[in-house]
Specification:
Length: 268
Amino acid sequence: MIVRTDAVVLKSMRFRDTSKIVTFYTRKFGKLAAVAKGAREPKSKFGAALEPMTEVHLVLYKKDQRDLQLVSQCDILRPFKTIHSEMPKMEAAMSVLELLHQLTHDEEENPALYRLVTDTLEAVEQAEKNVYNFVYAFELRFSALFGFSPSFDRCASCGRPAAENNPRIAFRIDRGGLLCSACAEARPMQRGTGRRLSGAATIKLSTAQILHRLLTARLDSLSSLGYHESVGNELDETLRSYLRYHFEQLRPLKSAGVFRMMSPGGHR
Ligand SMILES: [Zn+2]
């Protein structure tokens, strides 16, 4: 059957003498892999359309009982030029797509996730600074789409506004996010399990506020969201623990490590 869908190219590898196997995240079918015959020939009809971090319109010969589909045609919709030419943007986009690749199963359709991925790439493409904010925002919003939406402004237990006069607030991943002091004291963390379950037992009020904005603010506003390095480190650590807790299969992102090596102290 011939099918058409928009897709983002996740990765591409050599196959036989002149072909490629390309993994796509598609709007209609979720993640799938397909062979692009002759894609490595000098005058291939695919041109640059099979480059990772590109949004394309894809025509596939698709069979349900087959693991590897066949690309008939592939045309660039959005090339994301600055992502391909500016290293911090490339690292941010790679981190987003690597997370997507690791945490989705083959052929699980999720149009909301497709929209989040392409909106995130577009925001990275347009950003002037703070591009790593989009990775954090993606991680939070990805979790929310899968039903793990953390609470950063209200107590996850009683629903009261969590901001108190305290500069640090209890944060418990196993209980859904921030806790007001009354709820935190009502069921204290078991000794020894806190670190493994939830990372820090408390986080700064300012970290919670930044996390809340990363989760809820318009994506295109996040380029102007700056914060102190101590807040950046704490939110990074909080998010790592959060993702590890909810997605046990998640491995450390290769691209994120590269990014940190390249930008000392840098969450901005
Ligand atoms: Zn409470």
